[in-house]
Design a protein that fits this description.
4 helices, binds zinc ion, mainly alpha, about 0% strand
Length: about 110
């Protein structure tokens, strides 16, 4: 239960915090953009079953691999376009959130 709260808390609320740090005046707009990065979970549609609560998505789905993660982090660091940069930050953070969940399942 606590795990679910932490997971969805990070997925939905922490990104609000990131948006706020990114731009105090337009945080609502950036929050929506960060929410949109959740769409990478659509790669779960290629998996069967599509949803399985205790499966670790890292390295299971193609947008959730370490390769993809490195790509997102590089994008977050080097892209200058504000919106694109934020999308990559959001994607990196999304994988971090999922990874925390995996560790939790593993050790918890
Ligand atoms: Zn995910």
């Amino acid at each position: 239960m606590l795990q679910k709260i932490v997971h969805y808390g990070l997925h939905f609320l922490a990104i609000g915090g990131i948006a706020y740090m990114y731009d105090k005046n337009n945080w609502r707009k950036y929050w929506l953009i960060l929410l949109a990065t959740m769409l990478i979970d659509l790669d779960h549609l290629w998996a069967s079953p599509i949803f399985e609560p205790n499966r670790c998505s890292i390295n299971f789905h193609f947008l959730h691999t370490y390769y993809a993660w490195v790509f997102y982090i590089l994008g977050a660091l080097f892209i200058r376009h504000r919106i694109a940069k934020l999308i990559f930050i959001g994607l990196s953070f999304h994988l971090l959130t999922d990874a925390i969940d995996c560790l939790w399942n593993f050790y918890g």
